[in-house]
Amino acid sequence: MKAFGDDDTIFRDMDVLNPNEQTYQPTDLPERTEELDQIHSALRPATMGSTPLNILVYGQTGQGKTVSITLKTNQLQEYADDADMDLTVVHVPCKGMDNSYHALTHLYKEIREKRLGPGEELPSGYQRKALLNMVLEELQEIGGTIIVVLDEIDAIGDDDYILYELPRSNPNGVRLSIIGITNDLQFRENLDADVRSSLGEDEVKFDPYDANQLRNILSRRAEGALRDTHFRDKIRDYEHLESEVLSSDALPLAAALGAQDTGDAREAIRLFFRAARFADDNGETTVTEAHVRAARDFLEQKAVESGIQTLPQQKMLALMSTTWHISKGESSVATTPIYTQYKKMCDVEDIEPLSNRRFRDRLNDLSDSNILTKKRGRGRGKENKYGLAVDVATAVENLPQKNERYGEVAEILRKQVEMGN
Ligand code: ADP
Ligand code: MG
Question: Quick one: three-class SS letters along 119-130?
Fold first, then answer.
């Protein structure tokens, strides 16, 4: 067994490469200078005794939206504290909240906690309108300039009540600004015109990072995180990065892989972090291209596994019926036998099977998410064939447990796989 403290390490401060924003927040975002300036311009009225503008921030995930807003509101807070200005910033992460009511309950709790300290409960049992009024009363209680950040507000879907009401609520004695952040570009398009014009007084768009930008982002974080890594000159881009512990191709590869996907900085950082950990855990002294490739395979495998674990019910059954055939030694199976097996499983679980046509849609969804492979049937009446994109053991391990929904069918499958071996 390894003993703590014995190992040499390539890390100086591992936290700097940690993609979790609770662990590390960058304070330098040169790739977002323009966006930061736009946010600055919208918030600046606060320093002049006026109301900061509402902002709608949009762009795909991992583009630095949250970190940019946090950076600018923190900066404004520091200014306000120095200038004895009355400023309160409330940040509400709305991920997983499926409607305006839900978001309002969390907003209410956050505002109360700003005023009274942690430990407030979520309100429940109120009418929507009453809840909104409670929020407004709390805002008036605090007074001064208040910025409410509704992060990942796309979670509320079509139910835009909170976005309609808050920007036009005018609580007494409050200069209120709402910042809505969305990862879903369609959400912005679909917003009601009134909401769009009041919330989107200013709109700030975050375009996806390209490979160059990702390289620079990774190199700054590598500089902070890895031993003996530093910029040769004052120029802080990757071409000027020197390191004893980093081979020259590792970082560009991680950036290129990240850009291929969606230019998501979080994913690129996660990939590079994993590669550096692989090297370090093996006691190696440099992070190389091979570590980056191994990290990519590892993360892809993890993504498929958690994809399987969280499949909705019908897709889960579609996967299980395919796995049933594959576990008997076939490498791919036509739609009809899979469908037949699926109907038997529905029987065991006592549920109504989907039509053949809709069932085929589920199989295709699974192949789109890289859980199944698909061979298109060529010619008239030829069926598609499906196989597993992961090995049988991986599929079976991630199926529901005995006491969960469909656990019984999963158990039968597991037994069959054991017997086959
Ligand atoms: P979004 O809100 O757009 O989904 P985040 O602001 O949460 O994205 O950023 C995702 C991750 O990438 C965070 O860990 C953040 O620190 C990091 N990140 C994003 N942009 C940059 C940048 N320009 N420089 C350094 N790190 C960045
Ligand atoms: Mg975010």
Answer: CCCCCCCCCHHH
